[in-house]
Amino acid sequence: MAGVERQDIVAFLGASAAYLRLGSDNGRQGMAVEISATPRFFEQRLSLGIGLGPFLYGDTTTTGHKEIGVAGLAAANAGWAVIPAVDLVVSVMREFGDKDYDLILAGLRCRFS
Known about the structure:
Elements: E1 2-10, E2 13-21, E3 29-37, E4 40-41, E5 46-60, E6 66-83, E7 86-96, E8 101-110
Antiparallel strand pairs: 1-2, 2-3, 3-5, 4-5, 5-6, 6-7, 7-8
């Protein structure tokens, strides 16, 4: 996953956009947009969140043609603030559509609010 940016809309609601490359046998990759609810606890250090949104993807068929489609994306994540504007995050995502994929991602999240 690359290019993740979360912007607070109100209180604990936010939005993010990401480029995902699933590395599956059909080369699925695309753009995901997600609305999420991520409240913070323990003096704003711990975050627990859920999100939902569309995933616009492209697949490469066995004949080499590109197929484009839209699937749903649901996520749950947990983060811990290592410094005031940066969280260490683990996220579990489920892409659901004609084929289902599970993703587990870990990394850093910068907060722009």
